[in-house]
């Protein structure tokens, strides 16, 4: 499994100075990059950058806007609790200004971004500060999120001023910012170029189509780092282990996880710039919620061997409590006469018009589960806030969720219809030359994936479906 980050043929730029490197302080992986370039993979160059790091002891936080953490403190793991969190350290916001922009404009001719030294394409949604000044010249200021690097360091990450300008320009622009007037730069910002390989040369498992047993994950596939890269590492590592055990690979579908959307986008459409995941990329995003990640994926994780006994027991308890309470809510009726007028006014804003089940009442957008449980004959309900929250969400949005699930079911047959990698598309009667060329080039592995390739029409998918049925008929008859 290759998770090489920015190391393949990496080149670091600070102003008009550049040198080979995988990241600051580390050498690049040039031999591996050259070996991969000799293989049939399609290769390109991308670019990313990082801001200068600052010594927090030299900053004046009184000139910045405090940004406290969320309350209550969110917990990333379904097994975690608020008590397990380390102490919260607040971030701050400051902003660039006219002087900052003047410093940047004066140094643009020395920026590798603008003097032709950098060939790679940078991330669209995370531009360098010099890119912001040029592309958004009408903006008088840009936000900077001042983030601690950790609990045991004084170093600060000024998120929003990624740059590859010369070090002297970096000092000037940093010290022009409110609160940074006496800032000491501990590490300069820089840009880095690196090799990536066209992800359309991958299977959904992230195994390469050309070399059996070789998996790519992360920035080598053209994504940004952090979450996008970590998600791919999980899938590639899991499928590499399944390959060793001679088990079938698994990748979540687009309706099962954002990881499924990410991988399907990459292997179907490819990318020409560092890919970043957004909720807007997912057509089934109503089902891909943060609150139901365990309900969506824990059973499959258990089957794959990724979920231990403790997590599985906790999941089963939660799932069973949700199902049991939902059954009770559907079976419990409230009559208008059973509710004292003062309670009806408090919970519903007025008298109840007709007899309804608790499940029907919970669909009201302004009615909380806890308020409903406070009514005579309704409670006591469940005491676990995560269980109560899940019950409330599923009830309130049930109509929308049911419609989306019906859409998923309709499309599932197409998503699960396999296409052989060696399928001869010239033998499919009725396909246009353009469709044959694109299908032969991209080699989709399912009918659903083929339908998402640019230029592949619904008519072409119908022809493919007919062709596959005809091919399967002789086998069925002989059997």
Globally, the shape reads: globular
Structural class: alpha+beta
Largest sheet: 6 strands, antiparallel
Strand line-up across the major sheet? 5-6-7-8-4-9
Question: What is the class of the largest domain in the CATH system?
Answer: Mainly Beta
Number of strands: 12
| Total individual domains | 4
Strand content: 5-15%
The residue fraction in helices comes out at: 25-40%
For the record, give the distance between the C-alpha atoms at the N and C termini, rounded to a whole number.
40 Å
Element pattern in H and E: EEHEEEEHHEEHEEHHHHEHEHHHHHHH
Q: What is the helix tally?
A: 16
Secondary-structure arrangement, i.e. CATH architecture of the largest domain: Beta Barrel
What is the C-alpha radius of gyration, as a whole number of Å?
Answer: 28 Å
Describe the protein's architecture and organization.
There is one protein chain. This protein has 4 domains: 11-196, Beta Barrel (Elongation Factor Tu (Ef-tu), domain 3), CATH 2.40.30; 200-285, no CATH class; 309-402, Arc Repressor Mutant, subunit A, CATH 1.10.10; 417-478, DNA polymerase, domain 1, CATH 1.10.150.570. Helix 8 crosses helix 12. It is an alpha+beta fold and 479 residues long. It has helices at residues 30-37, 98-107, 129-135, 167-175, 227-244, 258-269, 293-304, 309-331, 341-348, 358-361, 369-373, 385-396, 398-415, 433-442, 447-451, 458-478; strands at residues 11-14, 17-20, 43-50, 53-55, 65-67, 91-95, 143-148, 155-159, 185-187, 190-197, 333-334, 356-357. Strand 7 (143-148) and strand 8 form a beta hairpin.
